[in-house]
Amino acid sequence: MANRKNLLGYSEKKLEQFFLEINEPSFRAKQLLKWVHQQGELDFSNMSNFNKPLREKMKEIAVLIPPKLKQVLVSDDGTKKYLIELDSGSSIEMVRIPEKKRITLCISSQAGCALACTFCATGAQGFEKNLTADEIIGQLWLANFHDKEDTPITNVVFMGMGEPLLNFEPVMESAEIMRDESAYFLSKKRITISTSGLVPQINKLAERTDVSLAISLHAADDDLRDIIVPINKKYPIDDLLNACKNYLTVHEDKRYVTIEYILIDGINDSMSHARNLSKILSGLACKINLIPFNPFDGCDYKRSNNRNIEAFKKHLFDKGYITTLRITRGDDIDGACGQLVGNLKKATKGKKVVERQAIA
Ligand code: SAH
Ligand code: SF4
């Protein structure tokens, strides 16, 4: 019982190995992936293309267990935030964001985060644990199957809690399942890994996968970035931008990386910051995603005012950058970027109106 393997986080390759070890043909791997990740089936007894002895055997040696859903909060704008409890007792959050043409799931890769960016609620919490592959893919499984009314997720972004590149193998394993045509069959463009800029891991990522890459830049000079994204002291901006270029060189068909830039009042949102940003990015094929800072308890930063946000965006736009402004979603349920801390929250009635900003 105690040694039964949880197959939820097994990629096709790993499942093939598993079935070979119990003297079953490797095509069982595809069959199992389809049951679990396309039908949402977790009970081996119902897997009708497994013969009876195999069904019995599977029950003895394996399990299929997603992480435990503790709470779902629905925002006025349709965004859903899920609180999930892990076996270790840690909690994580994920957010489902429906838009006109896609439904994005923002997932967590770690409980907490060790990198302590000064604007991030997850960073303020400190590091708790790396998620296993089943805890990562389990988030997508829950989003697709726990509520049959919900339409399936079309895009996944590793922008929830944690630094995905500090939990490399489980993130790769789960991304493989997302891509697998017998599972979620998401194209490489529909999976985005966001990183605060771990240069060696970005280079390693380039060798392993060609999913979309997003960089949390947030400052255009090392002095400021050293403070607000402390990992910059180890991997300064020049090295980081070179790693981005390398990612694009390795994947010739990839047209750009996404540069994320939070706008924090009085910290990084002046015109000189904008000019500096447009200058340093000039050699990189990129899209810029501006994110108005989302406040949280215990952090003194404020969101930039709309005038500064517009001026910043206009400068980048005039310099020829494709620049979008992230609409703040799920603010009323603390489901917006950087507000994820894994706490139970009372669903408030009469929620405040969610601020919306247009995409450029
Ligand atoms: N660790 C990874 C991925 C998780 S953070 C990374 O840093 O990229 C996901 C995104 O949320 C990042 O772009 C991050 O900078 C942003 N973010 C963090 N705190 C935020 C806040 N308070 N307001 C707005 N965005 C925030
Ligand atoms: Fe960690 Fe990303 Fe938050 Fe920085 S922004 S503390 S890297 S989760």
Task: Give a concise summary.
The chain has eleven helices and 14 strands. By secondary structure, the chain is of the alpha/beta class.
Molecular structure report:
The protein is α/β, with parallel strands linked by helices and 360 residues long. It folds into two domains: 5-63, DNA polymerase, domain 1 (Orthogonal Bundle); 68-355, Aldolase class I (TIM Barrel, Alpha-Beta Barrel). Helix content is 32%, strand content 19%. The protein has eleven helices and 14 strands. It has helices spanning 12-21, 27-38, 52-61, 121-125, 133-145, 168-179, 199-208, 222-228, 237-250, 271-280, 306-318, and strands spanning 5-6, 62-63, 68-74, 80-85, 91-98, 103-106, 110-112, 127-130, 155-158, 191-195, 212-216, 257-263, 286-292, 322-325. Strands 3-4-5-6-9-10-11-12-13-14 form a ten-stranded mixed sheet. Helix 1 (12-21) crosses helix 2 (27-38), helix 7 (199-208) runs parallel beside helix 9 (237-250) and helix 10 runs parallel beside helix 11. The chain is globular and about 70 Å long. The model is unreliable at 346-360 (pLDDT under 50). S-adenosyl-L-homocysteine is lined by residues 119-120, 159, 163, 194-196, 216, 260, 262, 291, 293-294, 337-338.
